[in-house]
Design brief:
Chitinase A, domain 3; 449 residues; Triger factor/SurA peptide-binding fold; 14 helices; globular; alpha+beta; 16% strand
């Protein structure tokens, strides 16, 4: 289903591993080669914890990650597993991450400092901080800002790798849309959100019947602990092979139809606090606990509409982000002082096809421009926003009006297509990560060698 970069041949792998062992063996201080992009050529280490293909995870990296996760679980009020159990979980997560980063590098994907700085700026803005205050807060919490910065770079790289290998290959057929819309009329309750907690016992690719039997027994043992009153969050952190396991297993609140149909069928008739019977997917055995259920307002189901116009300034070599923000702030001041008309400024300065219509985007739905949503939701009719950043550039937005209306048939199909695509991407991403993990050469060093 997926294309994968060819792994290192066995002979080459042995040579690489031999060189790594010489460079990082007992008593050594520096690695000869950095294992991933963005790191210096010499990296202080304290021995090898794991070898993944032709790179290593050092004991110090593992210790740092365990410390971070312990702090997060404590902050969430999650009881910690034993150190050895937590270490096993963290190692597995780091192996999958390392394999994704290797694939990204092999495919020539890079995140330069400009892209990284923009991402950090957005994170600071989302936390209503300047970048310097954001950095100070990270360091106040005991983290290294340099390490945090490189961690964000890796997160972006992994996201780009997933977009290339998974998201871009997910297709939704018209018949799937037809079936979804038909099911919506007769099946699951509409306008309902649920909160689930999840534990997954992963099934390796090409698992034998004996392996399946052992994994099922392991999953059933965990399920029995849950049903006997065991702490679900702790059990998730101890046993779950899913990405949210080290966060206590919570999947958060989602509209019911955003979950895989397998999950929907399993929890549809559960009451809050109840646990579903063990279910099996191609990726693993799943334990689900319904932790919350609520009905959402009809407008949250996607039929709210907003009449919006905007002025777009694209970032170019001759116009920096800071200059664009300053220019839009000047426009806003002129508009609020009745020194100009919005449509005139849009026609004169906006770098968007809507400029000819005075920047008018017409009636839009939530999600049409995701970055607009939180801004518009907080605005009153006629209000003008502060500058808003999207991938296209910097925007000045004016909300002209809002209404609730029945979505057109085409809009319903578009929304259905998006839901189906999200479901398929979740499943495809889990399958992709499983294949990366199973096809990687992995050597876990239990003792110094």
């Amino acid at each position: 289903m997926f294309e994968f970069t060819e792994l290192v041949c066995p002979m080459k792998r042995l040579v690489i591993l031999a060189s790594i062992t010489v460079a990082l063996g007992a008593g050594s201080v520096f690695a000869a080669d950095a294992p991933s992009g963005g790191q210096p050529a010499s990296v202080p280490v304290n021995g090898i914890a794991v070898v993944v293909n032709d790179e290593v995870i050092t004991k110090q990296e593992l210790a740092d990650r365990i410390k971070t996760i312990e702090q997060r679980l404590k902050a969430q009020g999650v009881a910690l597993p034993s150190h050895s159990e937590l270490q096993t979980q963290v190692i597995e997560r780091m192996i999958v991450e390392k394999a994704q980063l290797q694939l990204a590098h092999d495919n020539g994907l890079r995140v330069d400092d400009v892209m990284l700085d923009r991402a950090l700026m957005r994170m600071a803005e989302q936390n209503k901080m300047s970048l310097q205050v954001f950095r100070n807060q990270i360091e106040k919490d005991g983290a290294s800002y340099a390490q945090f910065r490189e961690g964000v770079r890796d997160d972006i790289l992994m996201q780009r790798a997933r977009e290339r290998e998974v998201d871009s290959k997910v297709q939704v057929s018209e018949s799937e849309v037809d079936n979804y819309l038909l099911a919506q009329k007769t099946d699951a309750p509409k306008n309902q959100e649920v909160e689930l907690s999840h534990i997954m016992v992963r099934i390796p690719e090409n698992a034998t019947p004996e392996m399946l039997a052992k994994l099922r027994a392991r999953a059933e043992g965990v399920l029995q602990q849950v049903k006997s009153g065991g702490d679900f969050s702790k059990l998730a952190a101890t046993f779950s092979d899913s990405s949210e396991g080290l966060k206590g297993g919570s999947l958060g609140w989602r509209q019911l139809d955003r979950y895989p149909q397998l999950f929907i069928d399993a929890i549809l008739n559960l009451k809050e606090g109840q646990v579903a019977n063990l279910i099996k997917s191609p990726n693993g055995f799943h334990i689900l606990k319904l932790t919350g259920r609520r009905t959402v307002d009809q407008s949250a189901a996607g039929i709210a509409q907003f009449h919006v116009r905007h002025i777009l300034l694209r970032i170019t070599p001759t116009l920096t982000k800071e200059q664009a923000i300053h220019k839009l702030e000047e426009f806003k001041q002129r508009l609020e002082n009745n020194g100009a008309k919005f449509e005139d400024l849009a026609q004169a300065f906006s770098n968007d096809s809507s400029a000819a219509k005075g920047g008018d985007l017409g009636w839009i739905y939530p999600g049409d421009v995701q970055e607009f949503d939180p801004v518009i939701n907080a605005m009153k009719d006629g209000q003008i926003s502060d500058p808003v950043e999207t991938a296209a550039g910097m925007h000045l937005i004016q909300l002209l009006g809002r209404k609730n209306d029945e979505a057109s048939l085409e809009r319903q199909r578009q929304m259905a297509r998006q839901v189906i695509r999200e479901r398929k991407m979740d499943e495809a991403n889990s399958d992709w990560q499983r294949q990366l993990r199973d096809r990687a050469y992995v050597e876990i060093r239990r003792d110094d060698k």
